[in-house]
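Batch manifest, entry 17 of 40.
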Amino acid sequence: MVKSTIIARVADGLPLAASMDDEQAESELAGYKSQAKAIFKKLNSQSEPMCSIESGPYYLHYLLDQGVCYLCICDKSFPRKLAFNYLDELAKEFYMSYGSEIERGNLRPYAFIKFDTFIQKTKRIYEDSRTQQNMSKLNEDLRDVTQIMTKNMEDLLWRGGSLDRMNALSDRLRDHSEKYRKDARRLNLEALYRKYGIPAAIILGFLLILYLRFKVF
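Output type: structure tokens
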């Protein structure tokens, strides 16, 4: 069954709405909701439009539509077709209700929390995958869920962290390289001075003496 739902803006990960879960679900899913927020931070306009992410006993399914991410946390046994049908229904209703407001720059987190009423109503419809209505949805839906990318949460977060570390390392290496070039330039100048500085000073002094001598006399 669908355990929880979160809706966020893709551009900046701002949460727009979410299901109001009971205390037990909130306690059980706290870690998975944190993972959902981590997913939002990684999304952009080039991300897969639909994806299933495996994490412990759950799948985090998400659907991207019109610049908004619709994500639900479901038991692994809950059919993926129903999960994406559920998200699709939310996407249509949410955009119809708030589409003109989604891109507002002054939106606060969970600005559309009233959408929970529709989330709860739709969630109840999808609670039991064995009901006649949901069986019909499974049979009628032509979406090929085998084409929807499936990822592992640990790999996803590890890869993201690894990329962050690589970027930081690249920045440090670039800084060190620039410092090395400056140090090398300074050391080369010092080496040239030690090697040729004194002879050059003697020659210049000698030439200066000759110049003054001929100019005076």
